[in-house]
Amino acid sequence: MTDAARIPEHGRDAKELLADIEARHAEDIDWRGGRAFSLVYNVDDHEHEELIEQVGLRYLHDNALNPFKYPSVLQMELDVIAMAAQLLGTQPDAGSMSSGGTESIFLAVQVARDHARTVRGIAEPQLLTPSTAHPAFAKAAKYLDIEHILVPVGDDGRADVAATEAAITDRTGLIVGSAPCYPYGVIDPITDLAAMAMEREILFHTDACLGGWILPWWERLGEDVAPWDFRVPGVTSISADIHKYGYTFKGASTVLYKSRDLLQLQFFWYDEWPGGLYASGTAAGTRSAAPIAGAWAAINHLGEDGYLRLTEIVRETSHRLQAGIEAIDGLRLTHQPDLSLFEFGSDTLDIGAIGDVMDDRGWNLDRQQGGLHLMISPYHARIVDRFLADLADAVAAHGESRGVEASYGGLPGA
Ligand SMILES: Cc1ncc(COP(=O)(O)O)c(C=O)c1O
């Protein structure tokens, strides 16, 4: 363990600090070289990156807590919400921007909890999700103190409709499906799940944090996409992150509702404070304005044609990687992915040991319980052949697994 940091007695020189930061940053994951398959969505477009960086800088010090002091930020936020609503098929004012997928999910769970309590008279509502739903739902259940019921998925990795139906109780407040789920990249049977929810007046959330800003273009390219958005009867809320396949920097997500009535349940008003009436629409108080402006700029810069162009690259790259992996003797995709992220594993080889060789060669493949995970972004078009050659080598010559465990995320200091 290193010694705990201390506030320096004398401030350090800015140039020397920047050099220090550069050196530290160089130790971090090399996503710019296409060696990361999660965490960052590398758009492979220098002009786009530079634009959002410039926009981020302009708004770096600004606080979106009080939008009325920032008419420019307010308008950009309203525009982003309206554009997301257009994409997903709801009213232009029936949503919010949040700091990320986790916050959007928290908000949707909180709305469902309060809807169950106030509209349906359920004092202690339950949250029902497939086992592949993002851990943000478990976290929301913990923080919001509601019971979380997990339903195992079917062999194809998709939510099991019959098992979900069997798990519904008269306390179910929210049913969830993913479009797609992170571990396998498959879309849950949203039409069936949402219909079941609607019949019983239960709210239904599609978690499209990952797919929200790519599936619409995927469909426009002529791919078969199982229905998942507000066109599906019974879907009452959707989370969709712009900081993923919307290609802006971190801190930009949207949560949208079928109607503004549901959104109202999310709003917080407090007038017992000596400071005056306090109102806020999401979980945060002070909010950086930069991600709002960055998201607005990213969407406007790319436009429909830009998103279609990038989606075509992601689709082709995913297909090349999937075919290349399946062509290596002993490897297989564990599920048939609907999109640009997937898990591969093996029935005969030590997949952990293969992951170790790939680590040693500088690739960062996330380890899951059933194998190794890839999520494709446009830059990966450049590394397909090198990656597959290294993977074939790793399969041909790997030793014993070092026993690296499946994990995602982490706790500073733990
Ligand atoms: C399907 C899905 N939902 C939710 C999230 C959570 O998003 P965030 O990490 O922005 O909080 C993720 C993150 O990868 C995800 O893949």
Can you lay out the helices and strands and say which pair or pack?
Elements lengths: L13 H12 L20 H13 L12 H18 L6 E4 L2 H18 L7 E5 L4 H9 L3 E5 L9 H7 L4 E7 L11 H10 L3 E5 L7 H6 L16 E5 L11 E5 L2 H5 L3 E3 L7 E3 L9 H37 L4 E3 L7 E6 L4 H10 L5 E2 L4 E4 L8 H13 L18
Parallel strand pairs: 2-3, 2-4, 4-5, 5-6
Antiparallel strand pairs: 1-7, 6-7, 8-9, 10-11, 11-13, 12-13
Helix pairs in contact: 2-10, 3-10, 4-5, 10-12, 11-12
Bound molecules: pyridoxal-5'-phosphate.
Structural description of this entry:
This protein is α/β, with parallel strands linked by helices and 414 residues long. The mean pLDDT is 96. The chain folds into 2 domains: 29-48 and 303-395, Aspartate Aminotransferase, domain 1, CATH 3.90.1150.10; 52-299, Aspartate Aminotransferase, domain 2, CATH 3.40.640. A 7-stranded mixed sheet has the order 1-7-6-5-4-2-3, sandwiched between helices. A 4-stranded antiparallel sheet has the order 10-11-13-12. It has a two-stranded antiparallel ribbon with strand order 8-9. It is built from 12 helices and 13 strands. Pyridoxal-5'-phosphate binds at residues 100-102, 134, 136, 178, 181-182, 207, 209-210, 241.
